[in-house]
Amino acid sequence: IIKAFLFANFEPSSSRRKARKTEQFGKPLECDFPHNTVFPGVNSPQDYRELLKKYLAIAPYLLPKDPGDILNRPTLRHPDLTPSNVFVCPDTFNVTCIIDWQHTIVIPLLLAAGYPRLFENPDPEPSTGLVPPKYPEDYDTMSSEDKAQVDELIRRQSLFYLYRVFNEGLNKVHLQALQDPLILSRQHLVDFAGRQWSGNLMTLRGALMRMRDIWQHVPGKDEQHECSIAFSKQEIKEQTENEPMWYNLNKLVNHWRDELGGLSEEGWVRSEQYDYAVERNESLKAEFSEGGSADELEKIERGWPFQDHEEFF
C-alpha cells in the first residue's frame, strides 16, 4: 500500500500545492544578481504556474509503470551527507550518528539515486570508467601550494572512486538506478518543479523541453502515448539562445558560494565559517559594486543573492 501510494503521489501533489500557492500569493519578480543584468525585467508568476501545469501533465509517466518495480521502491534520502553531519567512531570506524535530518524525504529510488556530496565527482567531466586516481608525474617538482591543491583533488577523487567500488559490490540496486539513462533529466525536472517561485522561469522550462525531446524513452507511458506538452518555435528559440548564458551565470554564483565557505543554496554555512562568510559576502558585494553605474548598483543592491529575502510563493 505504501509503495502504491508513494508511486502515485511522489511529486504531483507537491507541485499542485506550489501551483495553488503561486496563483494565490505569487508576485512578479525579477531574477537575482547577476542574472538580472543579462535578463532584466520581472517575470510573471502566472507563467511559472503554466510551466507547473505542464509538469503535472507528464509527471505520472516519469517513473516505471509497475508500482512494484524495484526502482519505484520508497527510499529515505538524506540530502546533506557531508563530513560535518556524519559521526564516525575513531576506534572502530563505524558510523555512530547522522545529524541534520530536517530536509530528509521519502521518494522513489529512481529519484533518490545519486552521489552524496561527500563522494561527488570533483572533476568537471563525468567519469567514463572505474580507474583509481593517480598523482601527476611532475608532482615532486611542484610548489607546496600546488602540491596541496593536488593532494586535495586526489583525496576527493579517491573518495569518489572508492564509493563507486563499494557501491557496485554492496548496493547493486542503487547502481542499477544510477545506470538509468534518463536519471539526470528526470531528477532535474522533479527538482526544479518542486522549488518555490523566485522569478526564475529558465530552469523549469528548459527541463520540460528536454523531457519532451526524449519522450519516446520515458518508461511510464504507453507506446502510443504522445507527449501532452508543447512549446512554440519562438519559446524554443529563446530558450536555446538564453540557457547557456543562464548556466554560465549559475557557475559564477556557485563560485561565489565556494568563496563564502561552501554556502548552500538554502544559505547554510558551517558555524566555524560563519563570521568569515559574512565578511567575505560584504567584500564580494563591494568588489562588484565598485565603478558600477547607478542602474548596475541598483540591480546589485536589489538582487544580491546572499541576503535575506522575503519568501514568495
UniProtKB/TrEMBL annotation:
Family matches, as InterPro entries: Kinase-like_dom_sf, Mito_inheritance_9
One of the record's GO cellular component terms: mitochondrion
One term of GO molecular function: protein serine/threonine kinase activity
Organism domain of life: Eukaryota
Entries under SUPFAM superfamilies matching the protein: Protein kinase-like (PK-like)
PANTHER family assigned: ALTERED INHERITANCE OF MITOCHONDRIA PROTEIN 9, MITOCHONDRIAL, AMINOGLYCOSIDE PHOSPHOTRANSFERASE DOMAIN-CONTAINING PROTEIN
Official protein name in the record: Serine/threonine protein kinase
Keywords (A to Z) from UniProt: Kinase, Serine/threonine-protein kinase, Transferase
